[in-house]
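Supplementary Data S3. Sequence and structure tokens for construct A.
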Amino acid sequence: MTFKPTSYKLMNCADGRIFEDSGWTLADPQSKTPSLVRAVYEKKEFGIRTDLDGFYKFADWLPIKKTLSHSCAPVTYKSKGLADLLKLDNLYITFSGYNPEIGAFMHTCSFKETEAYSVCARLPEDEDRVLVVASAGNTARAFAKVCSDNGIRLLLSIPEDNIHALWFDKPLNDCVRIIAAPKGSDYFDAIALGDKVCTSEMFLAEGGAKNIARRDGMGTTILSAVEKIGRIPDAYFQAIGSGTGTIAVWENNLRLIADGRFGTHKMRLYPSQNAPFTIMYDSWKASSRELLPLTPEDARHQAAVIKAKVLSNRKPPYSLAGGVFDALTDAGGDIYMISNDEIDFWKEKFLNLEGVDIYSAAAVAVASLDKAVRDGSVKKDEIIMLNITGGGEKLAKSHKQVVYALPNLVLDPSMPAGEVIAKVEKLF
């Protein structure tokens, strides 16, 4: 079957201007202020594509030109164990990871697969540039798997300290290459390295939160929940590094309201960060649209201390129009701060109560739900969505052989762009 590309236009979140997507538009060229752009889909009703497999059952609200092989969708189920402990009547867990018992088969064990299968399917068929993705770990693993499986050229830029996150069930295809910022670097250093590479016409910046395909891919988590529950939840919990996932579910919430069949309310948003890396928590609590100052030295130290390493983005899409600040202001909610000790506690609790191991970032979300129950932010009879953004790694590794990828190059982010490009181009 030939896939018909999804029909949509773009909207500037700052001023509402509607315009055409040139193919890989990441921002409105006419915008006077920093702003995300949002996809406005021709199909206004939420529906499941029964003719498409896996993740692509949500294709009507994905800005894609094709479908790719081996995708899986998030799985939503009603919790019993955790719900009983927290005394919640309607707790729904949206699980993105590996747990065959509930039908979850994301082999990288992370909801970052939803980003990768959407972004890579947005690429034009005739695109010959190399896609560049910067990541602190899980995103790199997801993009590497999707590109390797589908023969898409990819350059990953990661902090060398996070190389342990690049594990797979088989060696990567040669179309995937990896560069790393040296030990002691953080996610922002990896971004800076990738940005230098993208000054070459040989490479194409993926775009991060600015890429509508990344956000709408992540937004399939709420679509999974609504498919299961039959209505928009009242409250939403997720750990955040960039906050892109929280922006994404807010945007799909607005689309669901426009549909009208699943409720007309905005679910309150409760993102959470791992202390001491709490730049968005600190800024939100200060009622500041602008991010509070954070020096590179402090950011690297905080990133080294936290257990949920993937939650260490020091330049998140918080302040710009359509970003985290606007999402929380519009929908209501709050940001929580979770300690390393709380992560350890809730990882063990979740495993015992729900039967599968989860990542530290997911445990941050569980801990924040516990805090919200304790402080009265959520009521026992409300419909609550808990986004478990990654889990099942121990289970997955017990089911298969595991191989680890190594960087092809380790490069200092302070190196001149010309030198970086000269070295990286030789990889392809």
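Construct B, processed identically:
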Amino acid sequence: MPTPSTILMVRPAAFGFNEETAANNYFQSNPGISKELLQKKATAEFDNMVQVLRSHDINVLVIEDTTDPPKPDALFPNNWLSTSPEGRVFVYPMYAPNRRSEKREEILAQLSNDFIVKDVQDWSEYEAEGRFLEGTGSMVIDHDHKMIYACMSERTSLSVLEKYAAANGFQAIVFLATDKNGMPVYHTNVMMALGDSFCVLCEDAIEEEWELIAIRQLLESTNHIIVPISREQMHRFAGNMLQVKNNEGKKFLILSQEAHDSLRKEQREMLEAYSTLLPIAVPTIEQVEGGSVRCMMAEIFLERKS
């Protein structure tokens, strides 16, 4: 698995509880406090995360959000943007109408200015048909073995996923995953995190035994050790992690403090065999928008221009 050494993050300008995404994101909850206080808390958590990453010599490209129109989820760029080691940039169809304005031409222009971009694929046309594929939220991608793992939800259309996979030479592995209330898990990356030699997986969420067996076999065949987590740990964002490397090539596993605290000693030890754990506290962001640190990072696999 290629491990990114640069990540893109968007500093929020209008953070808040998004009722449009809450329709099928059961990890969200409304704290009932003012937008001004929410914005202040979220910005502080964001700035701290950037500082922690940079203090470990991890490259962070920070983009400032714009205030008009308000974009409460702008700090989750991985849902609309991803890149590939082949030099491609992808733009995705988004479920919530008020999230579609997160897709900004100036961000794409900055990537083209700073990095070698060989192709841009924009899949947004499917929004008009009510079909969606929310980037590396919907898809956990194994670039080395050309596989995409995806759990079905309103955010992840099977037909768009299959077209995307076929267009880019991937095999799509599709399954159903449910949360503790029996509802579809809204994004694959809250129940599954893929590293170079390991996979954090909420096996309990995959109710069809044959689907779980198939996923286990595929992960084992691609030399990934499975680190199982429970549904309770999934709801504490223990599946929402990202492996990155710094400028010296040292590998870190970025996870929230909440996720870290939910892990048992033996789970932490398994993960520490592959990466240094780097927990970062983002409690307001997790509670209000139902996403964690992995959702805040879009991996940049592109080659930087000299």
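The chain has a mean pLDDT of 93. Residues 6-300 form a domain with the L-arginine/glycine Amidinotransferase; Chain A fold (CATH 3.75.10.10).
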